[in-house]
Amino acid sequence: MSEMENKIIDLLNAAGVKYQLFEHEPVYTCPQMAEFLATDQNLIAKSMIMKGADSGCFLVVLPGKMRIDYSRLARVVGTKSVSLAPVEEAQSIAGCSVGCVHPFGNLIGLETYFDKKLLRYEHLFFNPGSHTKSVKIATHALIEIVKPTINEFAEPARRE
């Protein structure tokens, strides 16, 4: 296990929450993860490190089938504009590669924003900083541990 995986599992154990850990072939996208887990893609907590125009980096978490409404997110965060953090910077901050960023901004010193739509679901799945592992946890337990700001900034992904 990587250092970040250990930190996440230790945090879950210390919090005394129930969770399930799944090991699998590497997955790099929310659709791949949902297919492996045989679940709805919106139950995947998609986490991304963002950067504000006049602020630092922060973490956003949204349902896996949704996308960020950048102008709405900028208003939520209180900045002129937002963008994805550069890959190298995001990986350095998250302690893992892009594609398996975890929802624990509190472990990496980032303010964390959860989209309100995540509250629709009883449980969520996330990558614990690994492409070969997934965790299932009650949504309320994840929110209790992370203590994110909850707001609306996700919208349905466009059909291609």
Task: Quickly list its features.
alpha+beta, three-stranded antiparallel beta sheet, YbaK protein, single chain, 160 residues, five-stranded mixed beta sheet
Structural features, described:
This protein has helices spanning 3-15, 30-37, 70-77, 87-94, 139-146, and strands at 19-23, 45-52, 57-63, 66-68, 82-84, 112-115, 123-126, 133-138, 149-151, 154-156. By secondary structure, the protein is of the alpha+beta class. The protein has a single domain (3-156), classed as YbaK/aminoacyl-tRNA synthetase-associated domain (YbaK protein, Alpha-Beta Complex).
Q: How far from one another are the termini?
A: 37 Å
For this structure, what is the CATH class? Alpha Beta
Mean pLDDT score: 93
Please trace the helix and strand order, writing H or E for each element: HEHEEEHEHEEEHEE
Task: Tell me what portion of residues adopts beta-strand conformation.
Answer: 25-35%
Characterize the main sheet.
5 strands, mixed
Low-confidence stretches: none
Number of domains: 1
CATH superfamily: YbaK/aminoacyl-tRNA synthetase-associated domain
Choose one word for the global shape: globular
* CATH T-level fold name: YbaK protein
Structural class: alpha+beta
* Strand tally: 10
SSE layout and pairing:
Layout: H1 3-15, E1 19-23, H2 30-37, E2 45-52, E3 57-63, E4 66-68, H3 70-77, E5 82-84, H4 87-94, E6 112-115, E7 123-126, E8 133-138, H5 139-146, E9 149-151, E10 154-156
Parallel strand pairs: 3-6, 6-9
Antiparallel strand pairs: 1-8, 2-3, 2-5, 4-10, 7-8
